[in-house]
Amino acid sequence: MKILGIDPGSIHLGWGVIDYAGKKPVYVASGCFLPGKYEFNRRLFFIHQEVKERIDEFQPDIVAVEDSFYGENVKTAIKLGQVRGVILLAAYEKNCKVIEIPARKIKQSVTGQGGASKHQVAYMVGQILKLQINCPEDETDALACAISASRI
Asked: What is the mean pLDDT of the chain?
């Protein structure tokens, strides 16, 4: 089973692919989309296209997306919802199964604590996947999402 995990963002969007060989997750690839400082609608289009390209490239069985969180900034929450919308659209256009996972559940699945820090999540992702590289937080968050999806 191959899973594409996505940590949504309009400035930095992390993605990570894991594959399961037996019961153990194996790192395949990860990266970060940088839509740039363009107008917001153009960033949404860029994200939509990039997600479709990753799906074409890696042919995941599941696309796992971090679910929205409710912050104090309504404008940011709306923009994040739009980003998530184009990600979900791309996944459904490619006939992928989609799983949406709350951030707290992802953290708990990977670290055992729903309130874990980004540093703790990154450390545990490295341990679980036996990574010899140091990935940026957006990538480790996406890989954590993929790992969590496999445990649902």
From this structure: 92
